[in-house]
Design goal:
By secondary structure, this protein is mainly α. It has 47 helices and 10 strands. The strands form 3 sheets. Strands 2-3-4-1-5 form a 5-stranded parallel β-sheet, with helices on both faces. Strands 8-10-9 form a 3-stranded antiparallel β-sheet. A two-stranded antiparallel ribbon has the order 6-7.
Length: 970
């Protein structure tokens, strides 16, 4: 009997699809194909055929396989596939990888710098993509990942990014996935719905295909040369599975019920038996032919898993090289095992039923004994249990019943996964460790696990489960756990709550940590508690929160100096710098320089990155310069710090809004929100939603702004650091663009009240700039108030400074110093150069004061503002500028453009630009007078426009026209 049919049966459509996909990849149009099917349906055989075709056409092939050996090992299939790049001996140009090279250290050991934090799968996915492109040879690449249903969460996270970004690359990703429910199958189906992947489903073979395959396996000319009874039984018992066809045929031949004679194949005896028992007996019969030592060898291999390393197997069984290789070669000949080609010195069972059949002939005691011997072999051969070996040893210890040893090994493996940023695997491994050690009654070991599990859950975004462990900490307190360790755990839990933006939960954990330490004071632990409490205090609503946070941070910094706690020292100084920024920028800079120096002296790359990020933030606030933030973001990418990347992204989004780059801000906000919402990073979500609300406000779209602010409120926006910004940068600006100055001032008064009750370290809400200008224009603020504001550090921040200078100009003009007032305006315009909307809005606001007091160029200012806001379809401000020009006796230029913003249907009906302005306002069902006030026209003109619109649009009446407008706005 042939080991395989000489050709694939029933898979022509799938093979054609793969050949076409590989041809497109060679032409630079890569993609993703998932081979989906039940176990044994022939996915691996079809993938092997694709590999042969790829190699034959000159494509590079990278192969990796997920493993069921022990717990899922982070990134195993990707690491296995990518490592083949370095075994070929060909030089690899890694310059193209740029800052992504260190990120790949998580997959490629030789590139591991050890200086990284848990990074998002997006960043690692981009790094893998760049590596694949750098390794290209102009002929395309096939990345084959088998058994993806067994893949770890981290691998799937990277693949989720790859499947969305391979279309315009010379890379074809081919993955095999079972039809059983799994995250991999969900990923494949989601990718197909998005149109970025093809699912090639492999159905069971039909009856004619089973007959054809049987004939090919037996070397017969056709199904007619195979006994009909054999074909019937194979069809009934295989359910169209190619694997079962092969195995049942092998069992029939081995049992002597199908024999070959001079006249061809004949059926002998009873073919009707229990299929499962027949299959198992057939497999065991083939194993028995390998002899007693062969059975022992494969039984030990089965305990190691479907994949097994030869070195461990040899140490377990004591077989010499000749016996080991001899039995393995016999197993290959019997089609029981195959070399695991991408991984040297590893073999695997061809099919999982072989492992299950071996288990049927082992007692539980024998299986546990083999597992214990396997664990010892792993530990002896790999004393440090580096890489995958720790997880393998943990799984074997667990199967052997050594629960404590297994728990400790799972804890070690989980700690390593956390350090490597493999959060999903870290949570899985540490959760297993926590469960095993909890049952074992070892509070010290369990506490050690929790010290890693808590931050792992927080980084993975599973805050609810992390906080649920609070009660477990209380129980541990009565189990002999030291006060220091218990307090440390409560502080870790408080940090989890802070990361999640849940300040009340964090403060409760701080209180418990202090209660524990009261029984056994320890200064070093108290410093760690204090610095976490300081960050929570800064987020906790209260009029004294900045003072309280500063006091705690200073205490932590002093203790850190005495006890040599560099991480605590850096954290404390970073917070002190944030608080000091509002009173003395130089003091803030000095604090950050100290934190930076400490981080560099103690080789703390993460703390150095945090300090650099805050330095970049200070520079942005002072001068609007984002270069420091961009450099810090690059450093965060290099280290894989997802939280800092998204924090900086939020600031850059707001910067784009203030600079008027609305399209890029919208796109970046959408991308960032998709990630931070999934990660449940509440502070980042709030900041981006605030920036999104400001974006809509700066477009004068109140409805969209309110939608963003409603989402902001749902993420605990009330009382947050970002709330003043949501009022000052969003609502107040929207009111000004609606020409409702009273409403804008009311919103800014709300900001002042908020900051009095809940001081913010975000200083762009308007209380030190815009509110001063509006109050001066209204006559409610004079020189004394101006001097009071300008004496603060916040007034010198670039965004605020433009409004402070304009307020000074108005006061100077009012004081009769016209030339100085005009010079102040020029200074304000230079400061406002990066912020076009604020610059032109400022000109519109001060024009009337300039005209009234006889200074400056109010007509020129209004013309510039009118042109700017007309181009951006801000009707209220455009109309106000035109009305102002008329009041000043200046001619108002008519714009010949603007029809492009009218929808095609309305334009075809003859609706003019001004009529369209009226039409849009009708959605709010305003009166003629209200519309006239908004557009700075007379009520009679508004009435005429409405009558014209009813006629042109064919509306039944005004109510019908309002309904049409509302539908358009919706």
């Amino acid at each position: 009997m042939r080991s395989h049919a000489p050709f694939l049966v029933g898979r022509d459509p799938q093979l054609t699809l793969l050949e076409r996909a590989m041809a497109q990849a060679r032409q630079g149009r890569g993609g993703v194909v998932f081979l989906i099917g039940e176990a044994g349906v022939g996915k691996s055989r079809l993938a092997a055929q694709a590999v042969g075709g790829a190699l034959g056409s000159g494509m590079r092939v990278l192969r990796g396989r997920s493993s069921t050996t022990g717990p899922a090992v982070p990134f195993r299939p990707l690491t296995e596939a990518l490592m083949s790049l370095f075994r070929s001996g060909e030089p690899l140009d890694d310059l193209a990888l740029g800052p992504y090279r260190p990120v790949l250290g998580r997959l490629i050991p030789d590139w591991d710098t050890g200086e990284r934090e848990s990074s998002s799968m997006v960043i690692l996915g981009e790094a893998v993509l760049r590596l694949l492109l750098a390794a290209g040879r102009g002929q395309g690449q096939l990345l084959l990942l088998e058994d993806l249903h067994d893949a770890d969460p981290e691998t799937l996270g990277v693949l989720e990014y790859l499947v969305d970004n391979l279309e315009y690359t010379p890379v074809l990703l081919l993955a095999t996935v079972r039809t059983d429910f799994s995250d991999a199958l969900d990923l494949a189906q989601s990718a197909r719905r998005r149109g970025v992947a093809t699912l090639a489903e492999l159905p069971p073979l039909t009856r004619p295909q089973v007959d054809e395959m049987t004939a090919a396996q037996l070397g017969a000319d056709g199904p007619g040369d195979v006994p009909a009874a054999v074909l019937d039984r194979l069809w009934e018992d295989s359910a169209g599975s190619p694997y079962l066809v092969e195995e049942l045929l092998q069992s029939m031949i081995g049992a002597g019920t199908l024999v070959q004679g001079t006249d061809g194949w004949r059926a002998v005896g009873d073919l009707r038996r229990d299929v499962s028992s027949t299959l198992a007996r057939g497999i065991l019969r083939r194993i028995d032919r390998l002899g007693t030592q062969g059975l022992t060898l494969l039984s030990a291999a089965a305990v190691l898993g479907r994949r097994f390393p030869l070195t461990v197997l040899q140490r377990m069984t004591g077989a010499d090289d000749r016996a080991l290789l001899g039995h393995l070669h016999a197993g290959v000949a019997a089609r029981l095992v195959v070399p695991d080609e991408p991984a040297p010195d590893w073999y695997s069972f061809r099919h999982s039923p072989t492992v299950e059949a071996l288990f049927t002939q082992m007692t539980p005691g024998q299986r546990a004994d083999l597992a214990r011997r396997g664990a010892r072999a792993v530990e002896e051969l790999h004393p440090g249990l580096e890489g995958d070996w720790c997880a393998l040893a943990a799984g074997l210890r667990c199967e052997a019943g050594d629960r404590v040893e297994a728990g400790l090994l799972y804890a070690d493996a989980g700690g390593r996964a956390l350090a490597a940023g493999a959060l999903g695997s870290a949570v899985t491994l540490l959760s297993r460790a926590e469960g095993l050690l909890a049952d074992a009654g070892d509070p010290q070991a369990r506490a050690s696990v929790l010290e890693n599990l808590l931050p792992a859950l927080a980084e993975a975004g599973d805050f609810a489960r992390a906080l649920d462990l609070a009660e477990d900490l209380h129980a541990l307190g009565g189990a002999g756990l030291s006060a220091v360790r218990l307090a440390t755990l409560h502080a870790r839990l408080a940090k989890v709550a802070h990361t999640a933006g849940r300040w009340s939960d964090g403060n409760r954990q701080i209180d418990r940590a202090r209660e524990v330490l009261a029984t056994a004071p320890d200064e070093a632990t108290e410093a760690s508690v204090d610095v976490t409490a300081a960050y929570l205090a800064l987020d906790t609503p209260g009029s004294d929160r900045t003072q309280h946070a500063e006091k705690l941070a200073r205490s932590a910094a002093d203790t850190a100096e005495r006890h040599g706690l560099p991480v605590v020292a850096c954290q404390a100084r970073e917070l002190l710098a944030t608080v000091a920024r509002e009173r003395d920028p130089e003091e803030s800079a000095a604090m950050l320089q100290q934190a930076l120096a400490t981080a560099e002296r103690h080789r703390l790359p993460l703390q150095r990155m945090y300090a650099a990020t805050r330095m970049g933030g200070n520079t942005w606030l002072a001068e609007g310069d984002t270069s420091g933030l961009l450099a810090a973001r690059e450093e965060a990418l290099r280290l894989g710090s997802v939280s800092i990347v998204h924090t900086v992204d939020g600031i850059l989004i707001l910067d784009a809004v203030l600079r008027g780059d609305h399209e890029s801000a919208r796109s970046a906000a959408d991308d960032c929100l998709a990630v931070v919402r999934r990660l449940r990073l509440a502070p980042a979500v709030r900041y981006v939603l605030m920036a999104r609300a400001a974006l809509e406000a700066h477009r004068a779209d109140r409805a969209a702004m309110e939608t963003a602010l409603a989402a902001f409120t749902e993420w605990d926006g009330a009382g947050s650091q970002e709330e003043p910004l949501s009022l000052g940068l969003a609502r107040a600006f929207c009111a000004l663009l609606e020409e409702d100055r009273d409403l804008a001032r009311a919103e800014l008064r709300s900001v002042q009240e908020l900051e009095a009750g809940n001081p913010s370290t975000y200083h762009l809400g308007g209380t030190h700039g815009l509110v001063l200008l509006l109050d001066v224009l209204a006559g409610d603020a004079g020189r004394a108030r101006h001097e009071e504001i300008t004496a603060t550090a916040m007034a010198r921040m670039r965004w605020n400074r433009q409004f402070v200078l304009l307020a000074d100009a108005v006061l100077l003009g009012r004081e009769g110093a016209g030339p100085r007032a005009a010079a102040a305006v020029e200074s304000a315009l230079e400061v406002a150069r990066p912020y076009p909307l604020a610059r032109h809005l400022g000109l519109r606001l001060i024009a009337d004061a300039g005209y009234r007091d006889g200074w400056g160029d109010p007509v020129g200012w209004l013309r510039r503002a009118e042109h700017y806001f007309h181009e951006r379809d801000v009707a209220a401000v455009t109309g106000a500028c035109r009305a102002g020009l008329r009041r000043l006796g200046a001619p108002v230029h008519q714009h010949r453009s603007g029809t492009s913003r009218i929808p095609e249907k309305l334009r075809a009906q003859g609706v003019t630009v001004r009529e369209f302005d009226v039409f849009r306002l009708l959605a709010e069902r305003l009166s003629n007078k209200d519309i006239a006030d908004r557009l700075f026209i007379s009520p009679r003109t508004a009435e005429k426009h409405i009558a014209s619109l009813i006629a042109k649009t064919g509306s039944a009446n005004r109510a019908d026209l309002c309904a049409r407008s509302a539908a358009f706005r919706g």
